[in-house]
Amino acid sequence: MAYTFIGPAQAQVSCSKVDSEISQCGSYLTGRATSPSAECCNGVKSIHQAVAGSAQGRKETCDCIRRTMSTYSDLRDEAARALPGRCGIKAGILISRDVNCSR
């Protein structure tokens, strides 16, 4: 058996993974659902866990999230900003089309 260890400094989430995970939240983000689905929250948690402890990973993922959010013409900004908290994530990931990813 071979094991691969990826430490926090190497944490990385591809934009295609972000797109895939966030797409499960479309109904909530556009107001067609009043709360995020379990699949949506699982995806958001997956993204959050993948970049925990990696400042560079968080920045790159933030850029991907911002780009993904800008593809929703009917995005409810307040729903996007509330999504992590609605999924039980206290801090570390911001979901918005206007978030400043350089901070």
From TrEMBL:
Transmembrane segments: none annotated. GO terms for biological process: lipid transport. It holds the Pfam family Tryp_alpha_amyl. GO terms for molecular function: lipid binding. Gene3D superfamilies: Plant lipid-transfer and hydrophobic proteins. Residues 15-91 form the Bifunctional inhibitor/plant lipid transfer protein/seed storage helical domain. InterPro entries: Bifun_inhib/LTP/seed_sf (IPR036312), Bifunc_inhib/LTP/seed_store (IPR016140), Plant_nsLTP (IPR000528). This is Bifunctional inhibitor/plant lipid transfer protein/seed storage helical domain-containing protein.
